[in-house]
């Protein structure tokens, strides 16, 4: 299971504020006998408010979690490890990292001074053997800059 913690960003220029939220990403039961990867997805939602009409550009970054390395994330149960990673695309080719992350924009108008945008996180547990049965967890910090 992957637990995401949201981080509210502070007020920026022109009085805008943005925050980010994400539900827990749960992989469910993993079988070490599986020959195919286990794949799931969830969403990250960015919500911004402002006192003037403007276009807000933002970037969402995901921390490395337990492993300290975004290219090789793992969930832990005591000293046991279950490798997984999070991706920006459904082809699982680009790791969602803590440097480039994912970018987007939200257009705020005079009629709508708050808005939101949603991005998908694609989770993948590659096939791996010799993983003891247990509850594996990791907690990541979601950071938004705008």
How would you characterize the overall build of this protein?
With 146 residues, the protein is an all-beta fold. It has a single domain (2-145), classed as Immunoglobulin-like. It has strands at 2-5, 17-21, 38-49, 54-62, 74-77, 80-83, 85-87, 102-108, 114-125, 138-145. It has a 4-stranded mixed beta sheet, with no helix packed on it. Strands 2-3-9-7 form a 4-stranded antiparallel beta sheet, with no helix packed on it. It has a two-stranded antiparallel sheet with strand order 5-6. It is elongated, with a radius of gyration of 17 Å. Residues 1-11 have low confidence and may be disordered.
CATH class: Mainly Beta
**Cα-to-Cα separation, first versus last residue:** 29 Å
**Major beta sheet, specifics?**
4 strands, mixed
Instruction: Summarize the amount of helix as a percent range.
Output: under 10%
List its salient traits.
146 residues; mainly beta; Immunoglobulin-like; four-stranded mixed beta sheet; four-stranded antiparallel beta sheet; 0% helix; disordered N terminus
How are the SSEs ordered, and which strands pair?
Blueprint: E1 2-5, E2 17-21, E3 38-49, E4 54-62, E5 74-77, E6 80-83, E7 85-87, E8 102-108, E9 114-125, E10 138-145
